[in-house]
Amino acid sequence: MEKALLISLILVVAAAASATHVVAIGTMGGRKEMDDARSNKEIEELGRFCVDEYNKNQRNKQSRRQGGDGAPIPLEFESVVTAEKQVEAGIKYYLTINAKEGDTVKEFTAEVVDYPARNKKELLNFSPAHHPQASEPMLGLDVIRN
């Protein structure tokens, strides 16, 4: 009887600890808009990470090409415009980022996953933002993996 009570108590404590962890980082599965995207330093750091990873990927592609017609102009991080987050195995962020290409500021969308427990970030997608014309139907995003 005491053994069954002890096992029940351990299970209750483990469930409570697990629920507390989920509440601390957000609700599992749903995307949530972040109101402080422009002022949040962690989000700014993720935006910089996305631009840096994109530039690194472009340099790697260029070095693999033979007889390329010049290196791409690297992007320079400006700001994060909007951010949403989704809690999964890590925390997935959907960012809209302003970055300079030469003298022109352009808007890009990025998907990045932060794995805080592993101290790792992974860029899933980085592409120019698409703003449909008023007459153009919104059919969704084409995912381009870098």
Helix content estimate: 25-40%
Distance between the termini: 58 Å
Radius of gyration: 21 Å
Strand order of the largest sheet: 1-2-3-4-5
- The overall pLDDT average reads 77
Q: What is the H/E order?
A: HEHEEEE
Strand content: 25-35%
Query: Stretches where pLDDT falls below 50 for ≥5 residues?
Result: 11-25, 134-146
How many strand elements? 5
Structural class: alpha+beta
The number of helical runs is 2
Description:
The model is unreliable at 11-25 and 134-146 (pLDDT under 50). The protein has 2 helices and 5 strands. It has helices spanning 2-25, 41-64; strands at 31-33, 75-87, 91-101, 104-115, 120-128. With 146 residues, it is of the alpha+beta class. It has a 5-stranded antiparallel sheet. It is globular.
Question: Which descriptors apply to this entry?
Answer:
single chain; 146 residues; alpha+beta; 2 helices; 5 strands; globular; disordered C terminus
